[in-house]
Amino acid sequence: MSIPELYGMLGSSMVMQRVFALITQAARTNYPVLITGATGTGKEMAARAIHQLSKRAKNPFVVINCGAIAENLVESELFGHEKGAFTGAIKQHIGKFEQANSGTVFLDEIGELPLAMQVKLLRVLQESTIERVGGRGTIKLDVRVVAATNVDLEEAVETGRFRDDLFFRINVFNVHLPRLKDRGEDILLIARHFLEEERRRMGLSRLSFSTEAIVALQAHSWPGNVRELKNRIRQAIALKSGDSNGPGVIDPKDLGLFVRSSDKTVHGEVGILPLREARARAEKDAVLKALSLTGNNISKAAKLLEISRPTLHDLINKYGLREK
């Protein structure tokens, strides 16, 4: 049976099927797209899927990590510079936007963009032109913008860290990626896919998950999402490939996961958690669910939970749910 996928994104759960439908719809337009979701949920893969499904697929797809560029170099990296524009500018430099002409530019972690650059980016989106640093004229471009963030941009707007006019400009079409823990059957589907992919890549003959490993995979909260899952499987395979007995069955300890006896299902009997712990787990799960459904929008999540924003902030801090 084939695995449901969209340009490398795997998922048979209803929530991911809705994401695939949204990506397909977004690809048919030329509007800016804002992809939201926690770290490790696959935002760049979603952006690439939008590009590959669009009429721009044969043209460049250029990635810009807004949080990884020094503030004094952001404008030059995005829009380029002319020779002699500043100390060290020994030759003309073509910026990322110009490199992406006729294609798609992916602004990853756009919430990290300095306010001064947000103003210039807004002008580029409005006028479809750029000016290289030190340049004397404008350059007309045809670029589709897809942006991504793991922070609540609406809250950033409220606190003055992000411009509201830029937010509305990039948020024409929103695609929210759910956390792995909210994707049900996708956890095992993706785990088995990664396991088989790595097994073939390393030329191993046999490898599978033990029953205990399957329980552990399903019980884990996956704070690092799909990225964490892939890394844990690679870790397990590295341990097994160095085993003198050769590769075989992967156990929870190989994955760095541990399942308490109260979490296991043994001969059809499920252990009972202490009431205080069960309440805390339910409370944490409810907060995570609300944040996932609202794209980490604090105001909307608080309304869903029927609590105040300060109370939600307290719960987020209590359970360590803030993004790193």
What would you say this structure looks like, in words?
There is one protein chain. The chain has helices spanning 14-27, 43-53, 74-79, 96-99, 115-127, 153-158, 164-170, 186-202, 211-219, 225-241, 252-255, 275-293, 298-305, 309-318, and strands at 5-6, 9-10, 33-36, 61-65, 104-108, 129-130, 139-140, 144-149, 173-176, 208-209, 249-250, 265-266, 269-270. The protein folds into 3 domains: 5-178, Rossmann fold (3-Layer(aba) Sandwich); 181-270, Helicase, Ruva Protein, domain 3, CATH 1.10.8; 275-318, Arc Repressor Mutant, subunit A (Orthogonal Bundle), CATH 1.10.10. By secondary structure, it is of the alpha/beta class. The protein contains 14 helices and 13 strands. Strands 4-5-8-3-9 form a 5-stranded parallel β-sheet.
Condensed summary:
The chain has 324 residues and is of the alpha/beta class. The chain has helices at 14-27, 43-53, 74-79, 96-99, 115-127, 153-158, 164-170, 186-202, 211-219, 225-241, 252-255, 275-293, 298-305, 309-318, and strands spanning 5-6, 9-10, 33-36, 61-65, 104-108, 129-130, 139-140, 144-149, 173-176, 208-209, 249-250, 265-266, 269-270.
Question: Which properties best describe this structure?
Answer:
324 residues, alpha/beta, Rossmann fold, Helicase, Ruva Protein, domain 3, Arc Repressor Mutant, subunit A, 3 domains, five-stranded parallel β-sheet, two-stranded antiparallel sheet, 13 strands, 45% helix, globular
